[in-house]
Amino acid sequence: MDGVLTKPVSVDELRAVLENAAERRRREPSAPIQSSLSR
Amino acid sequence: MDGLTLAYEIRKHRNAETLPLVLLTSLGQLTNSLRSACSATLVKPIKPLALFEILLNICAKDPSRLKQFTAASPFDATMGERLPMRILLADDNVVNQKVGSATLTRFGYRADIVGNGKQVLEALGRQSYDLILMDVHMPEMDGLEATERICLEWPNGERPGIVAMTASALPEDVRKCLAAGWTACSPSPCR
Q1: Do B60 and B17 lie in a common domain?
Q2: Which end of chain A has the lower number of beta carbons within 10 A, N or C?
């Protein structure tokens, strides 16, 4: 749940999104579980 | 002051060696004096390859400029290595898919690509992702419904990050995104 980007997406905004997501991944290192929707 | 007049004025102070000028024009015929004022001309609509070649030519005359261009690049190709993530790009528009994928590549990421919300759920069933870039309006299952189902499926903290992408910055659309589970918004209409 990291935000909403308006298209066309600017490079700076995409970069910020990537950095935020990477930071989130660093704080929560456990990989997301696989969905049961396909099971 | 139009671009032509500006070019002549600039040339009074700086020559082509110290400040190359590239003229963007829709004119078919260019006068010799105009050509002499500019290092190169590009006829609109500008083709990326033509612009790239002109920039290369300018840099070839003065390699130090290449460093300037590189330093000014907003991209960081090392991000993918420094901050590895599994990214899923969901967009039904093929052009948007290609542009998005190419942009992510320039940040060092290779994203998986799907075309609708249903395929997002299928992809999540096959493997885990750290980030989903989700178009809001897609056929079969839109990004809002896909997000709602992901939120139902995974508890907070275990689901991948989801960032909505929408061509609309209307408050109503943003409200729908927030209602579907997105918790922040940063619409920026100007690029």
Answers
A1: yes
A2: C
Strands of B26-180 (E only): list them. 40-43, 87-90, 112-114, 131-135, 161-166
CB contact under 8 A, B184 and A3: yes
B49 within 8 A of B93, measured Cβ to Cβ:
no
Token representation of residue B64: 């130090």
Return d(Cα B85, Cα B53) in angstroms, integer.
Answer: 33
Write down the ipTM of this complex: 0.78
- The partner residue sitting opposite B182, judged by closest CB among A3, A14, A38, is A3
d(CA B17, CA A8): 36
Residue B89 resides in a domain: yes
| C-alpha–C-alpha distance, residues B122 and B169, integer Å | 29
Residue ranges of alpha helices (H) inside B135-185 are: 143-153, 171-180
Residues B55 and B115 grouped into a single domain: no
Q: Examine the domain organization and report whether B61 and B21 are in the same domain.
A: yes
């102070």: which residue's tokens?
A: B13
The residue to which tokens 């990291």 are assigned: A2
User: Model pTM?
Assistant: 0.62
